[in-house]
Amino acid sequence: MDFPKFLLGDNTDYPTAIFVIHTEFPRFIINLENDEVEWLEEFDQHDEEELENETENLIKEASEFYDREIARYEDD
After folding, report:
1. What is the rounded distance in angstroms from the CA atom of residue 61 to the CA atom of residue 75?
2. Which domain of life is it from (predicted)?
């Protein structure tokens, strides 16, 4: 099954949180309420160095995805 690169998620246990799930490597979930990131991958030292460089871009993309989705809901 193919998934989109990003998915939105919510949970009534976290009523103010908005989650964006990144489904491609490196997979992660970001809580846009506080920018907390939970990685769904195991990384070695080499990966961690590369990840540090890419993290800022991935978080920016996740935020842009959320903004785009909300704008689409408002247009409907």
Report:
1. 21
2. Bacteria
Q: Which domain holds residue 18?
A: 4-73
Largest CA distance in the chain: 46
Integer Cα distance of 74 and 58 in angstroms: 25
Query: Mind listing the pLDDT tens digit for each residue in 14-66?
Result: 999 999 999 998 899 999 999 999 999 888 887 777 787 788 899 999 999 99
| pTM of the shown model | 0.85
Measure the CA–CA gap between 19 and 26, rounded to whole angstroms.
Answer: 16
Which residues have a Cβ under 8 Å from the Cβ of 10 and sit 6 or more positions away?
A: 17, 18, 19
Q: How would you classify residue 35: left for phi > 0, otherwise alpha for psi between -120 and 50, otherwise beta?
A: left
Domain total in the chain = 1
26, 41 Cβ separation under 8 angstroms: yes
